[in-house]
């Protein structure tokens, strides 16, 4: 529009005519711009109103849609989430508690650590970031904020409004896990809270751990436990291969529990779980019963009478105190 006029005045210097021409050009330009804007607005309204926008979640969105939505969401989270430090300290207990909440309230959508969805994840658009795989560049406060308030028009609901009060009260624990994941501690965090609960899952879990450890100590099975492991206080002198059998059959099976009841798996030497120390004390108790009491009782038929974990526990953490009328344990 404005171009031919310019050519008319080529070489004339800055005359009043040219300035007027420019003003006219500017007016037309602005008018043009308004028309374009009006068409864009009408066009968009029409496009949306006529139902032409694609809303199916199982069809991948276009590049522009992706860009606009992602940028908008991230910028909004950055702007609104208060920049405060996590009031919860990253102790192991808190990491584990955070992991539990994550498994309960988030993993169904965001994925379980160590078990990537592959192509079998839930199909949603906006897509669900698979946090254990890709991590997040959000701060702990921002993760907390998203978990608390949710994100509009996405599957990310507001946990505070929706979830049980117990979970929403402890939401600050979850970002700890996310941060652990972001820092590549998947293995540790995944392991430390993955405590199996059904008998089949427990058996599988224990078998897997024993297989892993057997590989690690291959060739050293006959060396004393204290030479192979790091924190042996009562099972000194026991060949390390036997220690694993005691853990699997003696302790886990007779109590009907998984290694994770007493251990932070992968960090077997640690003493932070109470049942581990109880097990040591139980072992001493059984020793006392056998050698100071049982074997002093006259007239027992067996020459070397024994008491072990199974004698009392019989596959339960809490030994029974009563019998059913048919004589089975309660
Ligand atoms: C029903 C599925 C669902 C559940 C359950 C869920 N989310 Fe989300 N979450 C999403 C979706 C979908 C998005 C993507 C939203 C977007 O990009 O607009 C998202 C995004 C996020 C983000 C932003 C990630 C990033 O880097 O952009 C965080 C953080 C997050 N969720 C944390 C959580 C936490 C913590 C929980 C559990 C308390 C949770 N989510 C539960 C579906 C879910
Ligand atoms: C009821 C509690 C309990 C259960 C269940 C249990 N352990 Fe243990 N574990 C112990 C105790 C107690 C010790 C330390 C023994 C000692 O001090 O001599 C120990 C020590 C170990 C050690 C040596 C760690 C080191 O470096 O000092 C390994 C490895 C181990 N257990 C593996 C396992 C595995 C694998 C399972 C599951 C199949 C399991 N444990 C189940 C109580 C348990
Ligand atoms: C003489 C019976 C007896 C023997 C033998 C025995 N226990 Fe126990 N054990 C108990 C009782 C009783 C409790 C307490 C249960 C309760 O009331 O909570 C208990 C509790 C425990 C607990 C805590 C349970 C929990 O909820 O975490 C552990 C761990 C444990 N025993 C491990 C062992 C191990 C390992 C052995 C073998 C070395 C063993 N016990 C041998 C009677 C026994």
Describe what you observe in this structure.
- With 330 residues, the protein is mainly α.
- It has 2 domains: 63-191, Cytochrome Bc1 Complex, Chain D, domain 2 (Orthogonal Bundle), CATH 1.10.760; 199-313, Orthogonal Bundle (Photosynthetic Reaction Center, subunit C, domain 2), CATH 1.10.468.
- Helices cover 55% and strands 0% of the residues.
- The protein has 15 helices and no strands.
- It has helices at residues 3-8, 16-49, 63-80, 92-110, 131-134, 140-149, 159-162, 165-169, 173-182, 186-193, 199-216, 225-228, 240-255, 274-293, 309-313.
- Helix 4 (92-110) crosses helix 9 (173-182), helix 6 crosses helix 9 and helix 11 (199-216) packs antiparallel against helix 13.
- It is elongated.
- Residues 73, 105-106, 108-110, 124, 126, 128-129, 136, 138, 143, 146-147, 151, 154-156, 159, 174 line the site of one heme C.
- One heme C (HEC) binds next to helix 13, helix 14 and helix 15.
Stretches with pLDDT under 50, minimum 5 residues: 1-15, 186-192
Individual helix count = 15
Can you list the ligands bound to this structure? heme C
Structural class: mainly alpha
State mean pLDDT (0 to 100 scale): 82
Give the CATH class of the largest domain. Answer: Mainly Alpha
Number of domain units: 2
- Biggest beta sheet summary: none
β-strand number? 0
Estimate the global geometry from the Cα principal axes.
elongated
Distance between the termini: 94 Å
Rounded to an integer in angstroms, the radius of gyration calculated over CA atoms is 34 Å
CATH-assigned fold name of the largest domain: Cytochrome Bc1 Complex, Chain D, domain 2
Report the portion of residues in β strands: under 5%
Helix content: 40-55%
The CATH architecture of the largest domain would be: Orthogonal Bundle
Order of helices and strands: HHHHHHHHHHHHHHH
